[in-house]
Amino acid sequence: MRRLAAAMVNRVPITKARINLGQLAKRAHVNKEYFILEKDGIPVIGIMDADEMEDYLELRDPKVKAQIRQSNKDIAAGRTRPAGDLLQDLLAGAAGSSSRRSK
Fold first, then answer.
1. How confident is the model at residue 64, as a pLDDT?
2. Going by C-beta distance under 8 Å and a sequence separation of 6 or more, which residues neighbour residue 36?
3. pTM summary value
4. Does residue 77 sit within a domain?
5. HEC letters along 27-69
6. Three-state SS for 42?
7. H or E, element range at 46
8. Secondary structure (3-state) at 2
């Protein structure tokens, strides 16, 4: 099993971040680094990749949490099937619907 690398968290004075904002944004996006911006040594704001931020916000949604809980219950109860079977069903359904359209 592959281990995830530890998150790189950098603390940067807000005055320095202002000067280097483009570079910080690129590092957050490309390298998945995190930045804590400090004013007078006090952490005030963070910078992270937008995709990761969207994922974080989505997980705070009660509907998404409920879906995850239900999925975990289904897995624990054995109500799962191999992904290959699902893919075959989806491809068979797509093939059936495209042949109906061409008639």
1. 86
2. 9, 10, 11, 12, 43, 45, 46
3. 0.60
4. yes
5. HHHHHCCEEEEEECCEEEEEECCHHHHHHHHHHCCHHHHHHHH
6. strand
7. strand 42-47
8. coil
Amino acid at 13: P
Question: What is the average per-residue pLDDT within 81-87?
Answer: 86
**Residues 17 and 39 grouped into a single domain:** yes
Among residues 44, 56, 53, which one has the least CA distance to residue 25?
A: 53
Q: Are residues 9 and 40 in the same domain?
A: yes
Q: What's the token pair of residue 64?
A: 């998404």
Determine, yes or no, domain membership for 54. no
Structure tokens belonging to residue 7: 């998150």
From CA 84, how far away is CA 65, in angstroms rounded? 26
Q: Are 73 and 83 in contact (CB under 8 A)?
A: no
